[in-house]
Design a protein that fits this description.
The chain is an alpha/beta fold and about 280 residues long. The chain is built from eight helices and 14 strands. Strands 2, 3, 4, 7, 8 and 9 form a six-stranded parallel sheet that branches. Strands 1-12-13 form a three-stranded antiparallel sheet. Helix 3 runs parallel beside helix 4 and helix 5 packs parallel to helix 7. The protein starts with 5 loop residues before the first strand and ends with a strand.
């Protein structure tokens, strides 16, 4: 219930995001599909693969992803899971990846999708709390993980173990997409109306191998182009929630100050409020 008052930009209750791995050339096709449906994606790139055969070049990423509002995030410099690395090796792997992408793209990169087995397997002295600590210290704001797919549609309680709703091939993909789309967003204020997130991940080569690009479009036809939903990249969601966390309330909870650069929306029993960047707003009844 931590985020029960949070509302996404425009006072929206729901958000949708996508995350695709490895920097395959097929990502270009998916980015084009995303843009045609008005949604945004995060594309996780292996630093050492940039420009190699079958992979994306820096110019392609700038033109087709960054210029269209999509996100480029890290996926390990050598695509090696942190759970399989000794701590100093993990630090090298993810520091090198972040520096490589930032120097190549000329843009800050603060997102990460754990590659391979991620943090689901721990060996060589690896420990999740240690991994979480150095990933955070390296300047990453979030790290996408993997676990059991589910239709809870929750924001993560741990941004360094951010579990998506589902892989796009989940057998319940269309059922859960429709369930998310049908979630009520009106009818008065209720504390249990916490913000909801639909988060899909995968690899674009899977669509090419199976010859079923229509599969992702069928998902998009359900969840895209809805006025009650915010379509954002992974980093945009993380930054927005961080801004919400930084709101400052007066001692009597009747005034709210927003010290961030992001306008923040939230809902209370007495109404919906937007606190603009740098402003204070009276929210008392």
């Amino acid at each position: 219930m931590k985020y029960r008052h949070l509302r996404f930009p425009g006072g929206k209750l729901k958000a949708v995001t996508f995350s695709y791995d490895d920097g395959s050339r097929y990502d270009l096709k998916l980015a084009e599909i995303f843009s045609s449906y008005g949604v945004k994606g995060t594309f996780n790139v292996v630093g050492s693969d940039i420009g190699s055969s079958g992979r994306l070049s820096a110019e392609e990423m700038k033109e087709n992803f960054l210029a269209k509002g999509h996100e480029i995030a890290c996926h390990g410099f050598e695509h090696t899971a942190p759970g399989m690395l000794r701590p100093f090796e993990g630090i090298q792997e993810y520091l090198n990846d972040r520096m490589c992408l930032e120097n190549t793209l000329g843009k800050l990169v603060r997102g990460l999708a754990y590659p391979n087995s991620g943090i689901t397997y721990l060996g060589n002295g690896a420990d999740y709390e240690n991994i979480r600590g150095y990933i955070k210290d390296l300047g990453f704001m979030y790290a996408r993980s993997l676990a059991g797919d589910n239709n809870l549609f929750r924001l993560p309680s741990d941004w360094y173990n951010w579990v998506p709703t589902m892989h796009h091939d989940n057998e319940n993909a269309f059922v859960w997409a429709q369930e998310f789309a049908d979630l009520p967003v009106s009818g008065g204020y209720f504390p249990h109306y916490t913000p909801r997130l639909f988060y899909v991940w995968g690899h674009t080569f899977e669509f090419e191998q199976k010859g079923n690009w229509e599969h992702i479009e069928d998902i998009l036809k359900i969840v895209a182009n809805r006025e009650d939903t915010w379509y954002a990249t992974n980093i945009e969601i993380r930054e927005y929630v961080e801004a919400y966390d930084r709101l400052v309330f007066s001692a009597d909870s009747k005034t709210v100050y927003n010290p961030t650069l992001i306008d923040v929306w939230f809902e209370q029993p007495n109404g919906m409020f937007c606190v603009s960047s740098g402003e204070s707003v009276s929210v008392g009844e």
